[in-house]
Design goal:
This protein is of the alpha+beta class. It contains four helices and 13 strands. The mean pLDDT is 92.
């Protein structure tokens, strides 16, 4: 495939803001890419997307799975333009503790985000809906419970031979699956590939669990989780 086309797909998919339980913009971008490939995605009761591409009679199905959320803040208490926000997902406290950090606050159904500032981060893990901690949030516009925020960093940026993404984990994985589906359109050998784009992975693999519980994919399929997490050396273990 043309590398420029692969990168263009990545940019379109990775640019929308996303957070656990608020993945709609990323899902819409993925749906557009699937339609661009002539594929009609199915949307389950939880809003997750899937599509199947086959050619001939394959011996076994391959399922490619990627999640559409990335760690972010969700507003849980408000007083005007100020409030408290829970961090949904895992994070090292050192990145937030004792400092101010710029955010963009979003509201589902509203196009434009509002500049905001997070402060006073407290590491306070909560299960089962995994949250590492919480912070104070101050926005340029009034907040509402259920608003969500992402870090105010470039969504997609090229730096020499590197690509820097706000939500590489795992919108880059979603884009990789889309490029794979595009490449398969010219494949002449038999294959059966399911692509599944799940929600709420960061707080506990909830979307993937629902896919498994609903038996949405063949039980004898090979399942590959396409991840874009930080690099780890092969053969080493993280303490």
């Amino acid at each position: 495939m043309d590398p420029r086309e692969v990168v263009a797909t990545l940019q379109r998919v990775a640019s929308p803001p996303t957070a656990p339980y608020h993945e709609w913009r990323a899902l819409d971008a993925i749906a557009v890419e699937l339609k661009r490939l002539g594929l009609v995605p199915a949307r389950d009761a939880y809003g997750q997307l899937s599509v199947q591409l086959t050619h001939g009679i394959a011996e076994r199905t391959l399922v490619l799975v990627a999640h559409t959320d990335h760690p972010g803040f969700e507003v849980t208490e408000v007083a005007g333009a100020r409030g408290l926000a829970r961090f949904r997902g895992g994070i090292e406290p050192k990145y937030f503790s004792g400092r101010l950090f710029p955010l963009i606050a979003h509201r589902d159904g509203v196009t434009d985000g509002a500049r905001a500032t997070g402060s006073g981060y407290v590491h306070d893990p909560v299960l089962p809906d995994w949250s590492a901690g919480y912070c104070e949030i101050a926005s340029e516009r009034p907040l509402a419970v259920g608003d969500w925020a992402v870090l105010d960093v470039p969504a997609f940026e090229r730096r020499g031979n590197e690509l820097h993404l706000r939500s590489a984990d795992d919108l880059a994985g979603c884009a990789a699956i889309l490029s794979t589906l595009q490449a398969l359109r010219d494949e002449t050998r038999p294959f059966s590939v399911h692509a599944v784009f799940t929600r709420a992975e960061e707080p506990g693999l909830f979307g993937a669990r629902l896919i498994a519980e609903d038996a949405s994919i063949p039980k004898d399929a090979y399942v590959v989780s396409v991840e874009a997490s930080r690099a780890l050396s092969c053969g080493t273990r993280t303490p």
